[in-house]
C-alpha cells in the first residue's frame, strides 16, 4: 500500500466512526427526553442480568432453533471483529496481516474466523428462509409490512455479503501467498479451511489480477463494516449494542409490582388527613412537584428506560407471539407498542433538530396518532410479553402508563370499567354489592 | 357438606376478646360475593378449621384492594383503597396475610409496602404447603388418587411473583396424575381476566382468550382443571361450558381439591 491509501483509509475510518458517534449522541439525547427513574441500585444483580441475558443469551435459547442460530451469528460477529482490528492496523500503517507474527496462534485465529464466517452464512440463510419462505407468523403481523420487513432482510443480505467478502479476500490472499512473484509481500500465514475451497477459482489468473481481487474485497469488506455500523441507527438492529445497557437497567422488581405514583400518594394522604388544609398554599421550597399530567400520552411522559427499550427492540416478535390478546385476534401487539414508541421518539428528535434544540408542538402524540385506545384496552397485564422478551423489554409498563393517562386525565375508560370503578368507590367491591354483606357467605348453605 | 360448622372469627371479635390471630385471611371481593368463588372461600376455611389455624377475617371492614382500579389506570382510586385498607390492618397490627386470590396477593405483597402496609403475604397454596410442612395438615390421596389433573398458572401468581411449585406440590400430594399443558409456568397463557378484563367485554378479535386457554387444557384430556384464582376459575369454567365438556371436566380450586379429598 502506498501512503495515499493509508490517508484515504484513515479518512474513511474517521468518517465511519464519526458519523456513528454523531448519531449515538442524538440517540442518547432522545433517550434522555424520558422522565427520570432510578435504575442504578442493586448493581451486582444488574451486572449478573447483563452477563446472563445479553452476553449469555439465556432467554434467546428458550426457542432452541432460533436461539442456536442466533448464537452462531452473535459469536461469529464478536469473534470476527478481532480480524477487523488487524484490518484497521494494516489500513492505517500500510502493513499486511500484521498479526501473522503470532504464527500458530494466527493460524488458529484465521481458521476459526473462517469456520465462523461459514456458520454465520448458514444461520443467515436459515433466518432468511424462516422469514420469507416458511413465513413464520410473527414476522408477518400487520406492523411488519413495508420498512420493518425490508429492514429485516437487508440486515441478512448485509451480513451475507460481509462474510462472502471476507472469505473471498482470504481465498485471494491464500492464492497470492503461494505465487512466485518478485517482492511478494503476501506472507505465508494463516490456515484457510473454508476459503481454500474458493481459491481454485483463481488458479488461472495472473498475480496482478488476484491481487486486485484481494484488494477490492479488502476495501469493500472494511467499507461494508463501517456502513453496517452506521446502518444500525436507522434500523432495528441497534440491539447488538443496546441489549447490554437494556438488560442492565431492566426492572428487577417482581413483574406484578406496578409502581405507585408518588404525586397521587401525596394527594391521597392530604385527603385522608383530617387536619390537612386543602386550600393551604404549598410550602415554599417544597420538594413536592405537582406533575403536569398523570400517566403518558407522549414519549416525553415515559421514563428513559422505556425509551431505551424502544431503541433496543429488534422486532423479533416473541412478545407478540405470546400475547393472549394478539393470539386471539385483537389489535394489540406488544411489539407494535415498542415500534410506535421508537417511531414517535425519532419524530420528536427530528423536530428538536430542526427547531434548534427545542421541541415545537406538532399536533401529534404517541396516543391515538400511533397507539390506539383499542390496543391499550385489550391488554390483560399478564406479563407474557415481558417474560418473552430476550432482552428484558417491558411493553406492559408503557401500556399501563397510557391507560393511566386515559383514565386520570381524560376519564376515557370503557363504560364497563367506569361502572366497576364507581362500584369500588361506593361500596368497596367491583360489583354492586354492599360492603356490609361481605360476611354473608358464612351463613349461606 | 354442611357449612354450619364453619368457624370464621372476625378481627373485631378477636380484638374485643383480647386475642390476636396468627394470620389474617383476606377473602377478597370475588371470595365474598361471587357464587363460584364463595365455594373456594368455604373450602379454604374448612381446611383452616381442620388444621386449627388461629385466623380471622376483616369481614365488613375489608374493602377491594384496588387492583382492578390500578390496572385500569385509576391510580387515585387504587391508592384511596390501599390506604383505607392499610389503616384498618395497621390498627389491628396485622403481620401476616393469606389470600386465595392472586390479584389481592400481588397487590398486598408488592404495592402496599410503599404506602405503609408491610405484611408477610402468602397465597393460599403457599400457606397450605407450609401447614403441610409443619405437620398441621395431612393430605392423602382420597378421591383424587390417580386422577388426571392439569394446573392453570394464574398470571399474578406465576409470572408476576414466580410462584409455580406450591400449587403443584399440593396436587402431587393428592396422589393425582399431574399433567402439564403445552403452555405452563413462565409460558402459561392468561385466562383472559387480568388487567381488569374481568369487568368488561373483550376487544374485537376472532376468539376469546378463555376459550383458547380451555382448549389448551383440554388437549391434555384431564378430568380436572385445577386453578388457584377465582377469576381464572370463572373464565375456565365458562370455557369448559362453551366447549360442552362440563360433564367430563371439572374446574376446581386447589383448596377445593384438598377439602374434597378429605370430604370436609
UniProtKB/TrEMBL annotation, chain A:
Record protein name field: 4Fe-4S dicluster domain-containing protein
InterPro entries the UniProt entry points to: 4Fe4S_Fe-S-bd, 4Fe4S_Fe_S_CS, HdrC_iron-sulfur_subunit, Helical_ferredxn, NarG-like_sf
Gene Ontology MF terms in the entry: 4 iron, 4 sulfur cluster binding; metal ion binding; oxidoreductase activity
SUPFAM superfamilies reported for this sequence: alpha-helical ferredoxin (SSF46548), Respiratory nitrate reductase 1 gamma chain (SSF103501)
Segments forming domain 4Fe-4S ferredoxin-type: 304-335, 368-401
Superkingdom of the source species: Bacteria
GO cellular component, one term: plasma membrane
Transmembrane segments: 6-24, 65-88, 108-129, 154-172, 218-234
Alphabetic keyword roster: 4Fe-4S, Iron, Iron-sulfur, Membrane, Metal-binding, Oxidoreductase, Transmembrane, Transmembrane helix
Organism, scientific name: Pustulibacterium marinum
TrEMBL record, chain B:
Superkingdom: Bacteria
Keywords for the protein's UniProt record, in alphabetical order: 4Fe-4S, Iron, Iron-sulfur, Metal-binding, Oxidoreductase
Cellular component terms per the entry's GO annotation: plasma membrane
InterPro entries named among the record's database cross-references: Cys_rich_dom, HdrC_iron-sulfur_subunit
Secreted keyword on record: no
Keyword Iron part of the UniProt annotation: yes
Bilayer-crossing regions: none
Pfam family, one: CCG
Cysteine-rich domain sequence ranges: 23-109, 149-236
GO molecular function: 4 iron, 4 sulfur cluster binding; metal ion binding; oxidoreductase activity
Protein name from the UniProt record: Cysteine-rich domain-containing protein
Source species taxonomy: Bacteria, Pseudomonadati, Bacteroidota, Flavobacteriia, Flavobacteriales
Amino acid at each position: 500500500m502506498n501512503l495515499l491509501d493509508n490517508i484515504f483509509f484513515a479518512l474513511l475510518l474517521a468518517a465511519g466512526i464519526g458519523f456513528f458517534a454523531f448519531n449515538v449522541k442524538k440517540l442518547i439525547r432522545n433517550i434522555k427526553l424520558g422522565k427520570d427513574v432510578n435504575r442504578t441500585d442493586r448493581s451486582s444483580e444488574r451486572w449478573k442480568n447483563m452477563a446472563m441475558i445479553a452476553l449469555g443469551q439465556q432467554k434467546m435459547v428458550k426457542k432452541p432453533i432460533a436461539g442456536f442460530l442466533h448464537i452462531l451469528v452473535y459469536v461469529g460477529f464478536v469473534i470476527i471483529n478481532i480480524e477487523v482490528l488487524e484490518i484497521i492496523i494494516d489500513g492505517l500503517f500500510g502493513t499486511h496481516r500484521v498479526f501473522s507474527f503470532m504464527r500458530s496462534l494466527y493460524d488458529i485465529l484465521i481458521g476459526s474466523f473462517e469456520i465462523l464466517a461459514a456458520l454465520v452464512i448458514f444461520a443467515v440463510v436459515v433466518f432468511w428462509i424462516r422469514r420469507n419462505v416458511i413465513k413464520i407468523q410473527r414476522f408477518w403481523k400487520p406492523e411488519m409490512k413495508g420498512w420493518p420487513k425490508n429492514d429485516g432482510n437487508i440486515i441478512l443480505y448485509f451480513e451475507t455479503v460481509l462474510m462472502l467478502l471476507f472469505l473471498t479476500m482470504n481465498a485471494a490472499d491464500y492464492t497470492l501467498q503461494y505465487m512466485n512473484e518478485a517482492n511478494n509481500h503476501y506472507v505465508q500465514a494463516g490456515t484457510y479451511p473454508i476459503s481454500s475451497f474458493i481459491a481454485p477459482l483463481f488458479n488461472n489468473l495472473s498475480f496482478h489480477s488476484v491481487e486486485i481481487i484481494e484488494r477490492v474485497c479488502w476495501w469493500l469488506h472494511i467499507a461494508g463494516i463501517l456502513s453496517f455500523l452506521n446502518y444500525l441507527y436507522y434500523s432495528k438492529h441497534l440491539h447488538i449494542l443496546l441489549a447490554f445497557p437494556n438488560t442492565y437497567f431492566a426492572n428487577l422488581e417482581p413483574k406484578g409490582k406496578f409502581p405507585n405514583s408518588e404525586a397521587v400518594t401525596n394527594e391521597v394522604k392530604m385527603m385522608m388527613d383530617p387536619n390537612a388544609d386543602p386550600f393551604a398554599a404549598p410550602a415554599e421550597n417544597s420538594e413536592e412537584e405537582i406533575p403536569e399530567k398523570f400517566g403518558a400520552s407522549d414519549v416525553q411522559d415515559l421514563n428513559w428506560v422505556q425509551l431505551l427499550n424502544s431503541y433496543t427492540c429488534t422486532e423479533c416478535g416473541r412478545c407478540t407471539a405470546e400475547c393472549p390478546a394478539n393470539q386471539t385476534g385483537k389489535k394489540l401487539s406488544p411489539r407494535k407498542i415498542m415500534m410506535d414508541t421508537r417511531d414517535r421518539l425519532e419524530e420528536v428528535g427530528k423536530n428538536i433538530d430542526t427547531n434548534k434544540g427545542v421541541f415545537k408542538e406538532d399536533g401529534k402524540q404517541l396516543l391515538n396518532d400511533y397507539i390506539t385506545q383499542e390496543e391499550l384496552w385489550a391488554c390483560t397485564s399478564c406479563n407474557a410479553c415481558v417474560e418473552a422478551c430476550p432482552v428484558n423489554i417491558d411493553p406492559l409498563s408503557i401500556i399501563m402508563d397510557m391507560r393511566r393517562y386515559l383514565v386520570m386525565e381524560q376519564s376515557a375508560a370503557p363504560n364497563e370499567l367506569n361502572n366497576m370503578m364507581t362500584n369500588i368507590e361506593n361500596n368497596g367491591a367491583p360489583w354492586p354489592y354492599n360492603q356490609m354483606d361481605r360476611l354473608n357467605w358464612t351463613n349461606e348453605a | 357438606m354442611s357449612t354450619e360448622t364453619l368457624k370464621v372469627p372476625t378481627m373485631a371479635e378477636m380484638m374485643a376478646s383480647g386475642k390476636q390471630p396468627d394470620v389474617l385471611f383476606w377473602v377478597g371481593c370475588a371470595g365474598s360475593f361471587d357464587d363460584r368463588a364463595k365455594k373456594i372461600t368455604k373450602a379454604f376455611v374448612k381446611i383452616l378449621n381442620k388444621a386449627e389455624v388461629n385466623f380471622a377475617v376483616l369481614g365488613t371492614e375489608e374493602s377491594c384492594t384496588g387492583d382492578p382500579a390500578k390496572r385500569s389506570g385509576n391510580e387515585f382510586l387504587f391508592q384511596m383503597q390501599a390506604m383505607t385498607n392499610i389503616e384498618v390492618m395497621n390498627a389491628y397490627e396485622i403481620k401476616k396475610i393469606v389470600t386465595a386470590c392472586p390479584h389481592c396477593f400481588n397487590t398486598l405483597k408488592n404495592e402496599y409496602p410503599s404506602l405503609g402496609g408491610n405484611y408477610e403475604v402468602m397465597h393460599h397454596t403457599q400457606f397450605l404447603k407450609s401447614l403441610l410442612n409443619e405437620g398441621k395438615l395431612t393430605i392423602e390421596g382420597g378421591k383424587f388418587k390417580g386422577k388426571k389433573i392439569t394446573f392453570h398458572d394464574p398470571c399474578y401468581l406465576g409470572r408476576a411473583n414466580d410462584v409455580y411449585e406450591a400449587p403443584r406440590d399440593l396436587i402431587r400430594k393428592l396422589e393425582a396424575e399431574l399433567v402439564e399443558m403445552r403452555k405452563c409456568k413462565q409460558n402459561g397463557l392468561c385466562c383472559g381476566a387480568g388487567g381488569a378484563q374481568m369487568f368488561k367485554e373483550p376487544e374485537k378479535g376472532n376468539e376469546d382468550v378463555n376459550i383458547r386457554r380451555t382448549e389448551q387444557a383440554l388437549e391434555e384430556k384431564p378430568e380436572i382443571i385445577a386453578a388457584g384464582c377465582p377469576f381464572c376459575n370463572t373464565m375456565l369454567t365458562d370455557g369448559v361450558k362453551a366447549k360442552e365438556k362440563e360433564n367430563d371436566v371439572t374446574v376446581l380450586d386447589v383448596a377445593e381439591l384438598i377439602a374434597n379429598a378429605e370430604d370436609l
